[in-house]
Amino acid sequence: MYEQIYQWLSTQFVDNEMFIGVITASSIGTALYLARAFPATLWRLALRHATVTLEVDNTDPGFDWIKVWLARHPYVRRSRKLRLSGRHHRPDPGQSGESESWDLVPGEGRHVFMHNRRPVMLSYWIDTENSKGQFLRQHFHLRTVGRGQEFLRSLVEEAATLCTEDENVRVHDWRSGYWELSCRKRPRPMDSVILPREQADRLIADAQWFFGAGDWYAERGIPYRRGFLFSGPPGTGKSSVVLALASHLGKPVYALNLASVSQDSVLMEAFAEVPRDAILLVEDIDAIRIAKSRTGDQDKKDTSQGGGFTTLSGLLNAIDGVAAPEGRLLVMTSNHPEHLDPALIRPGRIDLHEWFDLLGPDEIRRMFLRFHPGREADAVRFAQAIGRPISPAELQCTLLAGDPFEVGDVLDTDAVEIANVPAAAE
């Protein structure tokens, strides 16, 4: 059979001009196609074997590092394809306009620039197919010449250091399955939160020790975790203390609203993605009536207050289960700690319980001096005029209304009554 096919083909090549033309045209077309595709194939092979790449998307904290680094890079000043990024740099109310509240970063598409005498190819794009609602999945793809990782590793370290040196406190929120940098808060001095002095010193010392005790925990085979519970009446500064503590320690804050978490697996993911050397804040933990039973019965799951299908068991596992992360400080706040399940606040999960009480005369005096420095005698008279325990939030509203010795205050004490309080002997 093969001989017959060979003889037929031989006859066609000799006697059939149409057959010869078809074969010739097909051969030329194939050769031209291969010739045209050869450079692209060669280019892909070169990229694959002679370059190293780095990919990061905005579900990872490193995305913000790279974005800030790009905004500071000289390339941005001469790029003609830019994107405005201002959401994560908005100033606090009342902040002066000395620092810009926006940045320019490379826009969507491809960019090529030099960094430390090496070319860097950057691609930025938005993945619309995997975006959810207002969340846009964004990607950075960096490529440079070489086969080693050292250059890209140093680039990432440079970007991380740039963000670390930023004195503002980075506050992240959990949204749609990822941590998003929601704002940068101006540093708040620890002494701006009016606490008993020994309580403030105790909090600072404990947190500082924890963040520097990784080796100590490892040597003793203890999970590197620590938990604080801040409790007290509303308006006593529990959340403010967290911000002041983060400012003092130079740590970012990851604020988790349990009402936004729909199920235990998402809760585990939220805890797991908090990086080391960070503060994880869960506010008003007593307001979410998650299941008291660990059986996961549907009739005991709270959906009426936004608790979704999270359970107490899921929360406990997220805090200190086998897969729970280490190296971050957990801080929970509560107005009513007596309502919390004992398993949630037992030692090992909550290592330090601090009660924030209403302000007494000494704290009222110190807070007055924050608003009116140097007026020690007036501060004592003001504290005497208040005459009762008061929350920092209420007292702040009073002092923000103006000088109480001139315009009165929002309490039941007017300016005349305050002025008539005898000055303390100096």
Descriptive overview:
Helix content is 40%, strand content 20%. By secondary structure, the chain is α/β, with parallel strands linked by helices. The protein has three domains: 52-166, no CATH class; 190-355, 3-Layer(aba) Sandwich (Rossmann fold); 361-419, no CATH class. The termini are far apart.
Task: Indicate the topology.
Layout: H1 2-15, H2 17-50, E1 51-57, H3 61-72, H4 75-78, E2 82-85, E3 103-106, E4 109-115, E5 118-132, E6 135-145, H5 150-164, E7 169-175, E8 178-185, H6 197-211, H7 214-219, E9 226-231, H8 238-249, E10 253-256, H9 264-272, E11 279-282, H10 312-320, E12 329-334, E13 352-355, H11 361-371, H12 376-386, H13 392-400, H14 404-407, H15 415-419
Parallel strand pairs: 7-10, 9-12, 9-13, 10-11, 11-12
Antiparallel strand pairs: 1-6, 2-3, 4-5, 5-6, 7-8
Briefly summarize what is shown.
This protein is α/β, with parallel strands linked by helices.
For the structure shown, list the relevant keywords:
426 residues; Rossmann fold; 3 domains; 15 helices; 40% helix; elongated; disordered C terminus
Q: Mean pLDDT across all residues, rounded?
A: 78
Structural class: alpha/beta
Shape: elongated
Q: Using DSSP, what is the number of strands?
A: 13
**Helix and strand succession?**
HHEHHEEEEEHEEHHEHEHEHEEHHHHH
CATH topology descriptor of the largest domain: Rossmann fold
Spatial extent as radius of gyration: 32 Å
Low-confidence stretches: 88-100, 291-307, 407-426
Number of helices: 15
**Major pleated sheet:** 7 strands, mixed
Within CATH, the superfamily of the largest domain carries the name: P-loop containing nucleotide triphosphate hydrolases
How much strand? 15-25%
**End-to-end C-alpha gap:** 123 Å
Q: Give the total of domains.
A: 3
What proportion of the residues is helical, as a percent range? 25-40%
Determine and state the CATH class of the largest domain. Alpha Beta
Main β-sheet, spatial strand arrangement? 8-7-10-11-12-9-13
- The CATH architecture category of the largest domain equals 3-Layer(aba) Sandwich
